[in-house]
Design a protein that fits this description.
1 helix; 83% helix; mainly alpha
Length: 59
């Protein structure tokens, strides 16, 4: 039973590809954002530790 759906195959496959791309984007963006936030927090903590050590060393 071929209902003439062959003409829709490019549309269907393109829709699947776009859907998968959006799923991957939706998964990766929060991961990348959290990585950047953690890196910024670590840098901030290092700066604060250095500042605290510098202030504590002066009489």
């Amino acid at each position: 039973m071929n209902f003439g759906l062959d003409q829709y195959a490019p549309y269907v496959w393109a829709s699947y590809a776009i859907f998968v791309a959006i799923l991957v984007w939706d998964f990766l963006m929060p991961q990348l954002h959290m990585r950047r936030v953690r890196r910024e927090l670590a840098a901030h903590a290092r700066r604060e530790a250095a500042r605290t050590a510098r202030e504590g060393a002066t009489p």
